[in-house]
Specification:
With about 270 residues, the chain is an alpha/beta fold. It has one domain: 2-enoyl-CoA Hydratase, Chain A, domain 1 (Alpha-Beta Complex), CATH 3.90.226.10. The chain is about 50% helix and about 15% strand. It contains 11 helices and 9 strands. The chain has a 6-stranded mixed sheet with strand order 1-2-3-4-6-9, with helices on both faces. A 3-stranded mixed sheet has the order 5-7-8. A hairpin with a 2-residue loop joins strand 1 and strand 2. Helix 2 runs parallel beside helix 3, helix 3 packs across helix 4 and helix 4 runs antiparallel to helix 5. The longest helix is centred in the C-terminal third of the chain and has 23 residues. The radius of gyration is 19 Å and the shape is globular.
Length: about 270
Amino acid sequence: MAQNQTTTDKAVLIEKKGKIAYIILNRPEKLNALNKELFDDLDEALDLLEKDESVSVLIIKGNGRAFSVGYDVSKYSSPSVIEDKDNLEAYTRRWIRIWEYPKPIIAQVHGYALAGGTQLVACCDIVVTDEETQFGFPSLPLGGGFVGIYWGWHVGHQRAKMLDLTAGSRITGREAEQYGIAAKCVPADQLEEEALNIARGIAKTPLDILKIKKQAHNRIMDLQGFRTGINFGPEQDAIIHTADGIKLVRQKIQELGLKGAIRWFNEQDV
């Protein structure tokens, strides 16, 4: 049995407990917002653990107050439509890699799972959360057709539309369990142990059997169009980024700052 190990100088940490490995998002000061450094370290961790035959199950969780609040937009640029689409497709390939990863992946979600963070959640095999967690969408409409489509496979298309079309929408961990985006919701002080217990139960099955069983379930989702559907997201999002409505929101962010723009958006008369 491999010894537990911890890497502490990266945006993603690895810890092991027997046949179970933790992948820990480690930008707590940014609520684990997703940036290039985190993605590079995540790719490295996935590569390492895929080759490690002593590991049967992965648990992804976040350090600090949140699982992940989504993409880090603090350094926003204005790429061309093609560059934008290429970047979004790279994100999508990473989420698909997690979805088709040969070992089961559990998302242990606390605090906040927002926007791009919910894409990661939706591509994990099992989601365990607590009652205090908030799942949801950005507070401003800055894209479209990229994040929300992941939700439809789990919560149903009506609920996905209701949440995605309403900027800043949130659901609790308990509602996430009821809707179907989480398999289980427990009190916050039980979350760590519950996720670990589920992982331990899975890890008793030999890894070669786990790989085939996971693939069988994913093939059913493939028949239902999951992979094809989320691959439409990048081109839809790249197109909407050129729309007048998006330009207006970005203009308001420049004029008022992010918090001011959110206040402006919420105070609109309709």
